[in-house]
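hey so i finaly got around to running the thing on Phosphomannomutase/phosphoglucomutase from Amycolatopsis rubida. pasting the sequence first so u can double check i didnt mess up the copy paste, my clipboard has been acting weird all day
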Amino acid sequence: MPDLSGIVKAYDIRGVVGEQLDAALVRDFGAAFALLIKPEAPAVVIGHDMRDSSPELSAAFADGVTSQGLDVVTIGLASTDQLYFASGSLNLPGAMFTASHNPSKYNGIKMCRAGASPVGQDTGLAEIRDTVEQGVPAFEGQRGTVSERDVLSDYAAYLRNLVDLSGSRLLKVVVDAGNGMGGHTVPTVFEGLPIEIVPMYFELDGTFPNHEANPLDPANIVDLQAKVREVGADAGLAFDGDADRCFVVDERGEPVSPSAITALVAVRELAKEPGGTVIHNLITSKGVPEIVAEHGGKPVRTRVGHSFIKAEMARTGAIFGGEHSAHYYFRDFWRADTGMLAALHVLAALGEQNGPLSTLTQDFSRYAASGEINSTVGDQVARMLAVKDAYAGKSGVEIDELDGLTVQLPGGAWFNLRPSNTEPLLRLNVEAADRAAVEALTAEVLAIVRA
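ok and heres what it spat out for the 3d tokens, dont ask me to read them lol
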């Protein structure tokens, strides 16, 4: 039996095309997915990004699905949140072919049940892997059919209906699509809005000729920052490869932290539904739950990862959720993540008043943070224990292990240390009152981690 553990991740399937993923294997994944969801739905909706391998692989997946008697609805080129829209609005399970921000040699499959409900290791992905490893059973009945459907305009109209920009002043906004799917969706979503787009790298190109489509890496927003300053824009937006994440820079070209965006959008959602629940993962700034509570909302803390966020949103009926990685989840979008909707909220908030974005977001940026710092270690467990031992028992220190190790220190500073699930890494995030305190605590923790 093949061992697929290297490409079947916690939330998706991802690997190097031609080495770990090919059409024959993807066809088996499609058939296994059909077996999983056959009792629930008559068809599967499939979309794909602009990578060279995506059309062939998505067609192979469709062949696998129809081989098990289910129909397929293809939506062609799409962002991941556009696929979620199709899954939600059509009430069908879905599959999106993308490797997000990974280099061009990679591709992958993100799957969901009807209503954009996630499929992860504990919700079907492990079962799909086992089915493929053991051999997909043949289906003797009639094959399913394949039809095409264009949902881009409906997706755009749905988003515009959720955020009212009718009262906004005209905004000049630089958008860096990174040669990814933002170049496909942004022109249609922003059409007719009081927004002058200054486009960067809108040409769909899965080789990413200008920079990696990962806006959380500071190196990849340098061009955007420069262009915002050059043209005197009100804001800048950067999307990742499959355009489900959006990163924001202000009129000075300075990054706005995803925690500040989470807090800003949460306040807007709470204005529509006072007393609502807002989910935040444990690496977002502690300013997020503070601001949510101050505006009458109920903050709920979760582990990192979209499956945990979505499950907690379903359990609590939360109206919104945000992560430090610039994933933003909306109850009104089937609890799925959409950076595009978060971007519209930011632009609406900016356009409703006359001040600059830096002033608007200042109220939502209360603390200094390190960002995620990775350390390669030989023994993740041993280094985690060493850090825990160094702080356990100290006066006023609180420790919890909801996700990795979170240490709250007297005076308000805190850090989280988490092991990577796929690499020999420990990931450190630190927050404190100011930059000097962040740097001091970071150095203190890293001295133990890297000893």
